[in-house]
Amino acid sequence: MTRGVDYPFQGQRVLLPGTDQVIGVLDGDTFHRAVLGSLHRFRGRPGPGWALDLVVFKALKGKAETIRVVDMETDVEYTVPYWRFENMGRKIQFGDYGEQLLLNLRYWETVQLKAPDEALKELL
C-alpha cells in the first residue's frame, strides 16, 4: 500500500502500530485492505498467500469477522473468515517487517470483480 494516500473505504482506519501508515479499514465486522499484488502477495515458502502483521491481526480479534483483500492490479477480491485465518495461518518473519500471520491462497475465497471499485483505482 502506498503511504500518504487517502484510503478509499468508509470506516475506522487501521494503522501499522507506531506509524501513521494506514494498512486497512474496519467497516462493521469486515477488515478491508487494498494492495498491489506484485508487491504485497507473499510468494516464498510456505506457499503463496496474503499476510498481516501479527500485532494488527490480534488487534482485530473480536472486531473483524471477515478479512477482505483486494488486489488492485488484477481486480481480484480475496475474503476469508477471521477464524480460518487464525486457525490455518502460519507465523512468519519476513525481513525487517516483523512477525506476520500468513494464510495460503488456497484458503481464500476469490471473486473476479466485474465492475472494479473506482475508489480502489485511485490508489494506483
What does this structure look like?
The chain is built from four helices and nine strands; from the N terminus they run βββαβαββαβββα. β1 and β2 form a beta hairpin. The protein has helices at residues 37-40, 54-60, 82-88, 118-121, and strands at residues 12-15, 22-27, 30-35, 49-53, 66-71, 76-81, 90-93, 99-104, 109-112. The chain has one domain. It is globular and about 30 Å long. A six-stranded mixed β-sheet has the order 1-2-3-5-6-9. Strands 4-8-7 form a three-stranded antiparallel β-sheet. With 124 residues, the protein is an alpha+beta fold.
- The share of residues in helices is 10-25%
Structural shape: globular
Tell me about the largest β-sheet. 6 strands, mixed
* Proportion of residues in extended strands: 35-45%
Structural Rg:
13 Å
Oligomeric state of the chains in view: single chain
The number of helical elements comes to: 4
SS-based class: alpha+beta
Short note summarizing the structure:
This protein has helices spanning 37-40, 54-60, 82-88, 118-121; strands spanning 12-15, 22-27, 30-35, 49-53, 66-71, 76-81, 90-93, 99-104, 109-112.
Keywords:
six-stranded mixed β-sheet; three-stranded antiparallel β-sheet; 124 residues; 4 helices; 38% strand; single chain; alpha+beta
Mind sketching the topology for me?
Elements: E1 12-15, E2 22-27, E3 30-35, H1 37-40, E4 49-53, H2 54-60, E5 66-71, E6 76-81, H3 82-88, E7 90-93, E8 99-104, E9 109-112, H4 118-121
